[in-house]
Design brief:
The protein is an alpha+beta fold. It contains one helix and nine strands; from the N terminus they run αβββββββββ. It has an eight-stranded antiparallel beta barrel.
């Protein structure tokens, strides 16, 4: 009886995690913290290796879309794995600063946003969180 309960619990958790990732996949707009304007559109997808990535599909400057081949297709979100409904263990690349940060990404169902945490340390203590919108 205990084994059956644990098996059902395991599958229920797996289904919930997969439902969350379906909501994370797709396009998201990055928002400038100071101006509130869209900076880029990032497409989240799952790679052939089972890890999750995000690449730039559109770039904006001062509210206007730019065609900048240097940034289009650039992979900014790399090597994330799904754990407890969140994406963890990957890195976030900031092209303007040419820096790579440790990252954690979670979906907020309440307002349909992503909370993207970039930090200098793996635990996420030294960093900041940015909200991305659909």
């Amino acid at each position: 009886m205990k084994k059956i309960f644990l098996t059902i619990l395991f599958f229920a958790i797996a289904l919930i995690s997969n439902a969350q990732i379906d909501k994370i996949l797709g396009e998201w707009r990055t928002i400038n913290d100071k101006t509130g304007e869209t900076e880029a559109v990032i497409l989240f997808y799952q790679g052939d290796n089972g890890l999750y990535y995000g690449k730039t599909t559109r770039v904006f400057e001062k509210g206007k879309e730019l065609f900048n081949p240097e940034y289009i297709g650039m992979i900014l979100v790399k090597d994330f794995k799904l754990e407890d409904g969140r994406l963890v263990g990957g890195t976030l690349f900031e092209p303007h600063e040419n820096k790579t940060y440790y990252g954690k990404i979670s979906y907020n169902a309440k307002d349909n946003t992503l909370m993207v945490r970039g930090s200098l340390d793996k635990r996420g203590w030294l960093g900041r969180t940015q909200i991305w919108v659909r």
